[in-house]
Amino acid sequence: MSRRALRSLAAAFALLACAAVTGAQPPAHTLRFLWEEAPFPRAHASTLVEAPDGSLVAAWFGGSGEGREDVGIWSSRRPRGGDWSPPVELFKEPGQPAWNPVLFRAGETIRLYFKVGPSPRSWSGAHMQSTTSGERWSDPVWLPAGMLGPVRAKPITLASGEVLAGTSLETYRTWSSWTEISADGGETWSKNGPILFGDPERDRIGSIQPTLLEIEPGVIRALFRTPRRLGKIATSLSRDGGRSWAPLELTDLDHPSAGIDSLRLDDGRCLLLYNPSTDRRTPLSLAVSFDDGVTWRDFLIVEELPDEESGELSYPAMIQDAAGDLQITYTWNRRRIRHATVPLALVPSRP
Question: What is the DSSP secondary-structure string of 253-297?
């Protein structure tokens, strides 16, 4: 039996287990596109947040293709119980592409971080803010040179009240991950790192795009994207709020070098959204951990492309809404952004 077939079978058993425990048919997750028509042919790297008024706000970069000069930052809103609004361009730097927006809410303020520049090796960080649940935005503010803000995955607010973001650098020869810490809700940042394997050969390869879980007050588990030649997601642990980190280690989670996202529920269950493959960015799967991210079990295939179909389901973003359900966005074949709602009841309970 193929690895893909085994994953599908495992997901089916997870749903059957849910039905056995509750005595009812398990709920279904839903899929929808953010738009049917848009003024751009390509889209990638989405992010989302729940606004103070209960609406969902999503952002992504869109244009004729990643890295091209016409690529800007776009956004759409979905009022509670409503439909997604038509895409609106929030930012466009003349002659330069935009990259990797990240939404983060601090109280009544939503911050939008993004990058601008010819490539990840030479981009600059900026942010905008909204106090109107994403309806109107401030002018951009550029971060100081060397400070990027969250590079792909959402920041988290720690028990201390500080905001911790994962960031990374991609140079000509190496990748490296860092963290940035904010004591003022995401306005300014201090930088910590790099986070390394402690092995010269692997450190020359490196990691990028960390996603973060606070598993105890001040104790952070990070999960990292690695180059395809490693084929696994990496992890590290910090015991001082993200200021210093244990050496990176490879997990047993297959990885095609693609974006990942994670989330810790209030009851301690940890979730990971990723592509469990070493060669394709499909399927997009959810996994759960009951031991603070040490071991993981896949339980739901959010979406999967057929073996004979090219394309990708990638760069996911995941939040838990006020009702407790999971809200997810991700790239669909570089042409559109898909939105999935996963009822909390689909997440397996502790064994």
Answer: EE--S---EEEE-TTS-EEEEE---SS-S--EEEEEESSTTSS-E
